[in-house]
Amino acid sequence: MSDKINADKAPKPVGSYPHARRVGNLLFLSGVGPRTAGSDANDSGVPGLKLDHNGNFLEFDFEAQCRSVFDNVRSVLEASGSSWNNLVDVTVFLVNMNRDFATYNRVYAEYFKDAQPCRTTVEINSLPTPIAIELKCIATIE
Question: Tens place of pLDDT for every residue, the chain, 142 residues?
Fold first, then answer.
């Protein structure tokens, strides 16, 4: 059996899925993006991002998205009874590896200075909302 977990301090999922599921002492997070809590699929709520009516960038701050996605992951972990230091595996999805990887890697090193989970970073064509990064994580619960 597994327990479904939803975190009040994280943005609502854009589909029919929980923020996380606990199976034994393992916690599996659904994809977490940088939208701010309280935003939903109809409200981008993405820090550092402003689009015109055609969906073109007016403002784009990838570092702000990185910091926000890490804060959202932390919120889901804490709501689930886990913590940042219990992360064991992080899969990172970037929509533009050439443009964003150096910034991502720098910010990641700040947040994961002590906790160093396994990590895989892949480039994808797009995400379901106008975000440039999403994390999929596995953690333990003690």
Answer: 569 888 888 888 888 899 999 999 999 999 999 998 875 545 568 998 988 888 888 899 999 999 999 999 999 999 999 999 999 999 999 999 999 999 999 999 999 998 899 999 999 999 988 899 999 999 999 8
Helices (H), 4-96: 62-79
- Calculate the CA dihedral of residues 134, 87, 76, 104 and round it to 10 degrees: -30
HSE toward the beta carbon, residue 35, CA cutoff 13 A: 22
The partner residues of 118 in beta bridges, in order of sequence, read 89
**Per DSSP, what are the bridge partners of residue 92?**
121, 135
List, in order of start, the domains of the chain with CATH numbers: 3-140 (3.30.1330.40)
CA torsion angle for 111, 112, 118, 121 (degrees, to 10)? 40
pLDDT of residue 11: 86
Predicted TM-score (pTM) of the model is: 0.91
92-102 core/surface letters (b: 16 or more CB in 10 A; e: else): bbbbeeeebbe
